[in-house]
Amino acid sequence: MSADTEPSMRAIAREAGVGIATLYRHFPTRESLVDAVYHDQVARLTTGARELLVRLSPPAALRRWMDLFGDWIATKNGMLDTLLAMIESGDIAHAHTQAELLAAIDEILNAGRATGEIRTDVTAEDVAASLIGIFTVARPPEHAARADRLLDILMRGLGPTP
């Protein structure tokens, strides 16, 4: 998606139900808006792992977290060029974000290993690579059904080995 196909700030304001002046008062540049959205979503994913584990079994928490990750990927699609430029310039620390996301996955995997519900030989990096692959070929929301099917297949593979 090129910069001319990314949503305009006016379109973003309209979608959010605020005036353009309000949007610019809080986010004077596209980069400041992208930065805020990006960091908010990463925080939701990392805290979401802990919150899911409180309410769900580790496998159910992991599967729900995968859905949240897919939502995060979909959110980034509308700001991809700006986001990539910010990562390239160093305005967003990609390595730090990656470490946070891997730690969230690892937290759920560790809980599942402790209960015997998730394989012990799978790493957070394995899960992350699988998710990137799935969401590359089945981008939400257009291919949500295919993504769900592939995520369910991945979850079956993460179950304990006999």
From TrEMBL:
Q: Which residues form a coiled coil?
A: none
Give start and end residues of each DNA-binding region. 8-27
GO molecular function terms attached to this record: DNA-binding transcription factor activity; transcription cis-regulatory region binding
Q: What InterPro entries does this protein map onto?
A: Homeodomain-like_sf, HTH-type_TetR-like_transc_reg, HTH_TetR, Tet_transcr_reg_TetR-rel_C_sf, TetR_SbtR-like_C
**Name of one Pfam family that matches:** TetR_C_43
Which superkingdom does the taxonomy of this entry point to? Answer: Bacteria
Q: Which residues form the HTH tetR-type domain?
A: 1-45
PROSITE patterns (alphabetical): HTH_TETR_2
Q: Which UniProt keywords apply?
A: DNA-binding, Transcription, Transcription regulation
Write the protein's name.
Answer: AcrR family transcriptional regulator
Name the source organism: Allocatelliglobosispora scoriae
